[in-house]
Hints:
The structure holds 2 protein chains of 2 kinds.
Chain A: E1 5-7, H1 12-18, E2 24-27, E3 43-46, E4 55-58, E5 61-65, H2 70-80, H3 85-90, H4 96-99, H5 104-109, H6 118-123, E6 127-132, E7 136-139, H7 140-145, H8 147-150, E8 153-161, E9 166-172, E10 182-191, E11 194-205, E12 208-211, H9 213-219, H10 229-235, H11 248-268
Parallel strand pairs in A: 1-3, 2-3
Antiparallel strand pairs in A: 4-5, 5-8, 6-7, 6-8, 9-10, 10-11, 11-12
Helix pairs in contact in A: 10-11
Chain B: E1 2-7, E2 10-15, H1 22-28, E3 47-50, E4 53-56, E5 70-72, H2 85-93, H3 102-115, H4 121-127, H5 139-154
Parallel strand pairs in B: 1-5
Antiparallel strand pairs in B: 1-2, 3-4, 3-5
Helix pairs in contact in B: 2-5
Amino acid sequence: MINIKWTYPVSLAETSSLLEKKSNVLHGGGTNLSGRDLSGVEGIICLKKLGLNYVKKDNNIIEIGAMTSYAETVKALSSISPEHILVKALKDAANTPCRNRITIGGSIAYVPKWSDLIGALLVLDATLVLIGKKSGEFKVADYLEQKELREQTLICSVRVKNTVHRSAHYRDVKTVNDMSLFTVTVLLELDGTSIKTAKAYIVGTKERITKLSDVENYLIGKRKDEIDESTVQDLVNVSIVGSRITDPEYMSYKAKVETARTIVRALEND
Amino acid sequence: MKTQFNINGKTVKLTFTPEEHLLYTLRQNGFTEVKSGCKEGECGACLVLLNGKPVNSCLMFTASVTEEDKLLTVKGIGDLHEPHVIQEAFVDSGAIQCGFCTPGIVLAAYALLQENPTPTEEEVKKAMDGNLCRCTGYVKIIEAVQLAAKRLQKK
């Protein structure tokens, strides 16, 4: 039997002090942690009593508490901004019971191989509010890159823009209720009929996350009728690892095709 | 660890280990209507309602359930002697074959109809996206949920 001690802090200060012990791990919805090898874990810090379960809008910023589940996020955001890229990205992630448990904070902290969330946060240039060894507001991109931001810290909330830009999200799955093998997320800001800014990411590549800079640069200044899908495909140079039953070469080609299609879909949205 | 749980409206004291999953705890304590399927959140056989929301008990640590939470298993909505309208609709529609997935599917339907009493076929499918059935092909299940919705409307 593993001798793990569960704690249920009721304040961020208490959580912060519990995080000082390296062998303590955080528990949000638990879907990542429950399948993991817990040897070496001495304590599990359950976050459910911290009140980090909320979605609020302040001017043009939406703040989502780290303990908010995917389902709660979709429900709350749908009433604030139904076309928000986070709604599109999370509404079909995994399946209903999982969406009721997977939390926003946990999904970022554990950075699972599959993720419908990360691409959406990156195109939005989202920030995180952290406490613990590092405190303050940090970009999601930096959090994913810098190990020191992830160690002994707690994500309290995520801040994203309440954007009305054109967007689309593609999730590649074997069956609709499956975890995505890779995702393509696109956010386009228009200036009249031309693209002013473009953000595009694929999550699930060999490098895990790939920013499609060449595609972004190609799109800027173009109108919808000027975009050549085969050129977009040529600019997507990613390797998708694949799984036991998928061929990496085919999946990498599929990523090219689906990126072009996702861009077209984003421009079709009104 | 020892905690007081609210299961099917009754207070129950259960003992469990820190790394134990809710599925195991429930089954070890007689709630065998909660079925053990894939154990990785794919099939929904172990589905229970936590504060009215469907969750996979195989993916939940028992210790993450606290005294304030309300758990509901399929026996909490009705049983053989006093079946719920949804359970009757499943029987009347022939939506059951081996029956292994049925407790989870009935609970998913119950949660859906609590929130949305008149779901479309698409909404039923979406609500059932965490439940696998290897026998029926889902057609009868969707019909059963729609029949239950109609009957509940008349009540």
